[in-house]
Every structure is written in C-alpha cells, then in structure tokens.
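Z., the sequence and structure:
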Amino acid sequence: MPLLCELANVRKDYPMGDLVVQALKGVSVAVTAGEFTAFAGPSGSGKSTCLNLIGCLDRPDAGEVRVEGRNVAAMGDGELGEVRAKRIGFIFQSFNLIPVLTAFENVELALRLAGVTAERKERVERALGDVGLADYMHRRPNQLSGGQQQRVAIARALVKGPALIIADEPTANLDSKNGAAILDLMKQMNERDGATFLFSTHDPMVMERARRVVRLHDGEIVGDEVRS
C-alpha cells in the first residue's frame, strides 16, 4: 500500500503561561493507505497532537509532517484548508453537527465546503444509506439518538471520498452498545471500501478492533503493534 502520511522526528511545544509543554518529543511514524489504526495513550500523551498535525490542523515546531507527499509546514493557510476540505474527513467525539440543519443538510455541507457541485443529492443519500440512516435524513440532531448523530458524523466524513478519516475519541460520548456498533460500522467501511481510519483513543474497545496500535506516553512513542 502507498504511504499516506508521515511524521518524521516531529516536535511540538505549547506555551502554558511561563512554562512550555512538550507535547511531542521527536516522534516518527508512517501510515499507509487502508490502515485502521489507533493512536492510544492517556490524556497528555500526545496522541491528539499527532492527529491534529496529520489532519493539517496544526504545524510542527520541528521535524516534518507529510500528507500525501506534501509537507504540511510548507503549506499556506489556504492550502491547508483545501486539504482539510477535500482530502480529510473528521469525526469528533462531540459529533459537531449543526443543530438547525437536518442530517441530510449536515452531510451535504461537507460537499459544499469542498466545492462539490455534481451529484450532491445522490452522494448524500448514498452516504446516509451506508450508515443506516436512509429513513432519518430529514431529522435534525435533537431528533436523533447519540448513536444516530455519530452515524451522521461518519457519513459527513465519508461523503467527499477523503484519503483519510481522523476520528478523535469517537466512542467517548456513546454507551458501550452504540460505541461497538459505530466501531463495527467503521471497520466494515475500512474493509469494504479501503477507507483509511486513524483514531485518537484511550478506549480498550477501539484498541481491540484496531489492526495497529501506536502507543504514546509523555510525547513519545512507546509501542507500535501491528496485528494480522
């Protein structure tokens, strides 16, 4: 499989008053297309920082981050925005749906932001059908359960056909039954469509399903397990 993204000796610091917190201390890791990988560790381990850099939400202080061969540090804000809009899908633990929009409109918005005009209706309907919400597309978020809202978020991430889907603690606000169903749905999409998923998590249920677990502690990689 081709290399999709890479962190090479990456450092990232965050000022906290008079202190500087070293979020990443020379991290190197490469991800190939088609992976279903969890970045795992306790709060403050650096896992979310890794995914923020891969997701073009931030730039490194040292080292190099490459996404589809492009150096993130060398991109302007406009280029970063274009990569996020067109090449990366995001799934958040708080769902981040717009309350006044229906499920259909929330998913369609991803296509609008990516500048997609062709076959928008068909693509949105197909994405919502894929996550089992064909009969709920005209409901607003407050008319959906937490598991259904997360399914809308998955459809929104996948509808534009991104190279990479980044899921930040996707099960954190779900009960165990809904969390398991959401993870099984994402794994099915990974296996069926070859969609690449990267998770930030400390949930054992996510780590059990991941085919690769990159473990971080205090800004350093302390384990990298690949399962058959």
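The domain at 33-57+76-226 is CATH 3.40.50.300 (Rossmann fold). The chain has one domain: 33-57+76-226.

Let me know what you think.
H.
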